[in-house]
Design goal:
By secondary structure, this protein is α/β, with parallel strands linked by helices. It has a domain at 38-189 and 206-226 and 271-299: Vaccinia Virus protein VP39 (Rossmann fold, 3-Layer(aba) Sandwich). Helices cover 33% and strands 24% of the residues. The chain is built from 10 helices and 13 strands. The chain has helices at 57-68, 73-86, 102-113, 127-133, 169-175, 193-199, 234-244, 247-250, 253-260, 284-299, and strands at residues 16-18, 23-25, 31-33, 40-41, 92-96, 119-124, 141-144, 157-163, 176-187, 218-224, 228-233, 264-269, 271-278. The termini are far apart.
Length: 300
């Protein structure tokens, strides 16, 4: 596998390895040292909205325990099968909001087993999450950074993944190749329904609409995924799931105590994937520029 080509978060020039692979440096002299855990910190101070953005260590540990227990294995399987169908060859992939790297590393291991040598970037704003992710694979390029400023060259990605993370249209349009695929994982209407019924007095069914958050350069091609059930046993597994979801942050303490007293909990998992095609359309400005060029050629 080849490392992902990164760009400088300060000036957008290409970053090149130096100092025996321990430093990334651009032609303007900006440099970034590799952390001892093997990741790059490309998040600028001015890009932070808080001193320590993203998931904290406790949330990362809870997510790691939960996902490594295999509860969401069918989701990873859907992801792997979808990529094998869409890109049956080596490609450049970015997991934007990779968290602690469960899906990123699981996908990489599957693709390697199929004989593909993808360039893969795992990007997250939480240094705690990326630090944990870097322990999963040395072959993936891990970076702390913002999805508002994706640190890869323009039109360099064949595929981008957004799994329960924020969708920003303009940065995606900059880094995706024309014809590239965007896969967005989002909760379906039945996701964690039984858990939500225990937390809230009234549960409203709702479903995300990823395509509504994107420009008209993006087209929804297919929706993938189907609901399945999981059974959580004991205090730790229920607590870990609560730490992974916004519901765990909103619930009353009395409800939390009630849930954590359960010997087991069966709930639904309804995670959908929106398969979206990116195809930029010529802008009015581009059209005017083309007309100017044609007129110049006619006058020569």
């Amino acid at each position: 596998m080849q490392p992902m080509q990164l760009v400088c978060p300060v000036c957008s020039d290409l970053l090149e390895l130096s100092n025996e692979g321990r430093t990334l440096r651009c032609i303007s002299g900006h440099s970034f040292d590799r952390a001892k855990q093997g990741y790059w910190n490309l998040l600028l101070v001015q890009s932070k909205r808080s001193k320590d953005p993203g998931d904290n260590p406790e949330m990362v540990q809870a997510r790691t325990r939960f996902l490594d227990s295999g509860f969401y294995q069918p989701v990873l399987q859907t992801l792997c099968e979808t990529l094998d169908r869409l890109v049956p060859h080596s490609v450049a992939i970015a997991d934007l909001g990779c968290g602690e790297g469960y899906y990123t590393s699981g996908l990489q291991q599957h693709r390697l087993a199929q004989g593909y040598a993808d360039e893969i970037l795992g990007l997250d704003i939480s240094k705690h999450a990326v630090r944990a992710a870097a322990r999963r694979s040395k072959e993936i390029t891990w970076a702390v950074g913002s999805s508002a400023r994706i640190p890869v060259p323009d039109a360099s990605l064949d595929l981008a993944l957004i799994i329960f993370s924020k969708i920003l249209s303009e940065p995606l349009e900059r880094v995706l190749k024309p014809g590239a695929t965007l896969l967005v994982a989002y909760p379906g209407p039945a996701h964690l329904m039984s858990l939500r019924e225990l937390i809230y007095d009234e549960v409203r069914e709702s479903e995300s609409d990823p395509i509504s958050q994107l420009s008209d350069a993006f087209t929804l091609e297919k929706t993938l995924g189907s609901p399945f059930e999981i059974e959580l046993k004991g205090n730790q597994q229920i607590s870990d799931l609560l730490a992974m979801t916004p519901h765990g942050q909103r619930m009353r303490e009395s409800k939390r105590e009630q849930l954590l007293s359960l010997a087991s909990l069966v709930t639904e998992v309804d995670i959908r994937f929106a398969q979206i095609r990116y195809q930029p359309r010529p802008s009015d400005t581009d059209g005017a520029r083309d007309c100017d060029i044609e007129r110049q050629l006619e006058n020569e």
